[in-house]
Every structure is written in C-alpha cells, then in structure tokens.
Amino acid sequence: MVFGQVVIGPPGSGKTTYCNGMSQFLNLIGRKVAVVNLDPANDALPYECAVNVEDLIKLEDVMAEHSLGPNGGLVYCMDYLEKNIDWLQSKLQPLIKDHYLLFDFPGQVELFFLHANAKRVIMKLIKRLNLRLTAVHLVDAHLCSDPGKYVSALLLSLSTMVHLELPHVNVLSKIDLIESYGRLAFNLDFYTDVQDLSYLHHHLDQDPRSAKYRKLTKELCEVIENYGLVNFTTLDIQDKESVGNLVKLIDKSNGYIFAGIEESAVEFSKIAVGPVDWDYYRYPFSLVAAVQEKYMTDDESLDVDEDHD
After folding, report:
1. How far apart are the first and last CA of the chain?
2. Is residue 258 assigned to a domain?
3. Are 191 and 144 contacting, i.e. CB atoms less than 8 angstroms apart?
C-alpha cells in the first residue's frame, strides 16, 4: 500500500513551496519522497521532480495550437492526462514500492469542484496502484482578514471536499504572514474551528460591497455550518513544529500512522537524535508515543482496538 498527498488550492496559496518544504521534511525523517508535478504550467520547479506532466503535455503548446486561454487550456490538459493515464501509471509504477508520493496539481480551482477530469485521474490512480491519498487543500491565511473572502474560502473548501471524496485536510498557509494584512476581527481559533459564522454578519455589513448581499451571505454561512465538514489547520512551512503537526494529521487521515507504526517510531527517533542546526529537525512525536504506551506492554505486540480512531 502506497501513501501520499494530493496538494491543491487556489493560485498563490503556496502549493509548489509546500511540496518543496514537505519533501525536505519527509526526507529528513527517513521517508523516500517522490514529487509528481501534474501542473502543465509549472515550468519553474524548486524541487526535484520524479514525474513531470510537461513530458506529456504543456499548457503553452495547448494554448497556441487550440487558441485557448489559460483556464480552457488547463481543462484540456487534464482531460488529455485522463485519456493518457497509462503514461502516468507507467511513470509511477517504479516508485510505488518504497516512495511516499506528493502530487502537485494546478491552481485552477474549477478542476476540483466543478470539472470531473482531475477527480477521475486521482480515482484511477488509487484503484490501479492501491494508493492511500489525502487531499491537502491550501488556502492563503490572508483571506481571514476579509470576511467576504473568508466565506468564499469556506465555500471553496466545502465544495472541493464534497467533490473529491478523499480524506481531506484544509490548511491556512502562510500563517506567519497573517499579521501583515492587519489585525483580525476575531481570534485565530474562530477562523480555524468554523463554529459560529453569524459573528461575521456585522463585519460584512460594514463593507458596502458585501452589505447588499447580506441575505445571500447569511444563507451560504448556514449551508457551511449545516454540513459541519470544514475546519482548518495552520501552517508555516518554515516552522518545524507547524510542519510536523500537519504531517501527523495527514498520516492519521490516510492511515499511514497506523499501517506503519513501527516505521513511524523509527522516523521520529531520527529527528530526536539528529543535529538541531536546521529548522526542520525536531518533530513532535507525542501521538505515536501515546499510541504505543496505550496499546503496547513489555511482552505484548501492538493490538489496536477496531473502534479506536
């Protein structure tokens, strides 16, 4: 069984930077990582790419040949990738034996809540290669400073979760820069927990652009709350503790932490005994320690209760 992440999010949310930083972190804790670039417009990659969709199709060529704009071109590229899924499968086949996969997808949000091509690509890979993937949906944290944009981010996250039907983690990225956009109207917990959106109504009324849509916004907030699916975790990709906490959450969502509990303990020990002159070396491994302490004795093997999550 192969584990990995499907990295998605709007343009500018930091997907490529995330893949670069996450691959470095996972390599440091002993996982062999393969980054798969599935963005045909991403021609400046900061990471070493194991598979690059540009070897199959390029957005620039599609736009020139078919007289399409960037959005139409990306839809065409994803449709072409789906029809040539055997190419991608053959590229991934040598990697699945011992690699953790990071899929770097395009930033066109319509691909993940409206069009079905990207979803079909993911589902075919899951079925053919027995993958266990978590969708990591990045949203720029600065959207929290604008109530209207924050509600839009919530709707986008909810629509993507319902459409993709994958284990899903929503992430407020670039959290270290959030104060540069001004003081938040509420504590950060309000934006991450998504508990009572009625508090936003007053602040939305203060913006003349949003006031005339007050009723619509109220109804949309109720839809989000009624589903009860959306919440966020935060990420500063340069902070070891922040990245480590996110990795634990992803590992739990796709089952990695339970399928490879002994291997995980070894990974974390590498961080514990390693040099500390680089920001990613310390890794919070309290979750694994807690599981081991609860379910293991000196003379017994790990025996996890089926009802335990």
Report:
1. 20
2. yes
3. yes
Residues 14/174, Cβ–Cβ less than 8 Å: yes
What is the residue-wise DSSP string for 280-308? T-----HHHHHHHHHH-BTTB-----TT-
Question: Structurally, how many domains does the chain consist of?
Answer: 1
Read off the pLDDT of residues 202-226 as tens digits, 9 standing for 90 and up.
Answer: 787 777 777 778 888 889 999 999 9
- pLDDT confidence of residue 164: 95
Mean pLDDT, residues 52-74 taken together? 95
Please name the residues in contact with 116: beta carbons below 8 A apart, sequence gap of 6 or more.
Answer: none
Kindly state the DSSP code that residue 166 receives in the 8-state scheme.
S
Condensed to tens digits (0 to 9), the pLDDT of residues 13-61 reads 999 999 999 999 999 999 999 999 999 998 788 999 999 999 999 999 9
Transcribe 9-74 into DSSP letters. -STTS-HHHHHHHHHHHHHHTT--EEEEE--TT----SS-EEEEGGGT--HHHHHHHHT--HHHHH
CATH number of the domain at 19, please.
3.40.50.300
DSSP 197: G
- Domain extent, residue 83, equals 2-198+229-295
183: which 2 tokens? Answer: 């003081």
Residue 212 lies in a domain: no
Instruction: Please tell me the predicted confidence (pLDDT) of residue 10.
Output: 94
> How far lies 227's CA from each of 10, 157, 220, in Å?
22, 12, 11
Asked if the structure places residue 204 within a domain, the reply is no
What single-letter amino acid sits at 123?
M
225, 206 in Cβ contact below 8 A? Answer: no
Phi, psi of 259 (to 5 degrees): -70, -30
- Is residue 217, in this structure, part of any structural domain at all? no
DSSP letters, 68-126, are --HHHHHHHHHHHHHHTHHHHHHHHTTTTTT-EEEEE--S-THHHHT-SHHHHHHHHHH
